[in-house]
Write a structure and sequence with these properties.
alpha/beta; Rossmann fold
Length: about 260
């Protein structure tokens, strides 16, 4: 048994080494976001079969959820999407709304959600799901700081995504970015919707999206509008971010999130 484990570990280490050695020459397929400047920075769009991270403050969880749902739609087209949520995320942010999903132009019939009791279970579920090439994408959503989300876990998800071609989208709410093997990293906040007619009180979905890590191109900062009918992002005609957090509400995870470690 020990010999089998040693061989398996050696194979895994070899696979990770090959990924990291050829990271700069690997040329994955890409899915256009529809936003011209963002697509240019991303060398044509979001890389498929890789890992992408989206970070947000706790009070910006709805904006980040909408953004990552849009990314998932762009990379998965009409294939099923598996959304793995840590229980604590649902406690803090609420359940995903299928009516809201439809209003964004997305098909609830293609969405499968899994609730995990803790971060370790969520990571295992996401890694296993990434091995299924019938999926279009896997979203892994966690809340707060957690020691389980280390570089080893990131490498494991990257390896699984690379082998199957399924894109992994990590939604990290109330967490601080740390070293990872992610292809891109975004920080997302809500933005003001443009003025609209009285019967469209909610306005168009507007997002303040900051690309802070891009392994194969420049970073960027844009106000994006999600076009619900076309299911793509566009340049905002009314680019006004929301008011910044006050001095006693920093970007870092809220105090209660730090005190109640998710893992």
């Amino acid at each position: 048994m020990s010999g089998v484990r040693t061989t398996t570990l050696a194979d895994l280490r070899g696979s990770i080494e090959r990924i990291e050695t050829h990271a700069d020459t690997y040329a994955p397929d890409r899915a256009s976001l529809g936003h011209a400047e963002a697509d240019a920075a991303l060398q044509g769009g979001l890389a498929l079969g890789t890992v992408h991270e989206v970070f947000a403050e706790g009070r910006q969880s709805a904006a980040a959820t909408g953004f990552i749902a849009g990314l998932a739609r762009r990379v998965s087209a009409r294939r099923p999407l598996l959304w793995v949520r840590q229980d604590f995320s649902e406690t803090e942010s609420g359940a995903l709304s299928m009516s809201g999903w439809s209003e964004l132009g997305l098909d609830p019939r293609l969405l499968v959600t899994v609730r995990a009791p803790d971060v370790e279970a969520a990571l295992r579920t996401a890694a296993d799901a990434l091995a299924c090439d019938a999926l279009g994408a896997v979203v892994l959503e966690t809340w707060g700081e957690t020691r389980q989300f280390d570089l080893v876990a990131s490498r494991r998800l990257t390896l699984a995504a690379r082998m199957s071609g399924v894109t992994a989208l990590l939604l990290r709410v109330a967490a601080v970015p740390s070293p990872s093997t992610a292809e891109t990293r975004w920080i997302v906040r809500s933005a003001h919707s443009p003025p609209s007619t009285p019967w469209l009180a909610w306005g168009a979905p507007m997002l303040d999206a900051q690309l802070v890590r891009n392994r194969h191109g420049p970073n960027g900062h844009w106000i994006m509008e999600w076009k619900c009918d076309e299911c793509l992002f566009r340049e905002a005609s009314h680019s006004q971010p929301v008011v910044a957090a006050s001095a006693d509400r920093p970007h870092q995870a809220p105090t209660h999130a730090r005190q109640r470690r998710a893992g």
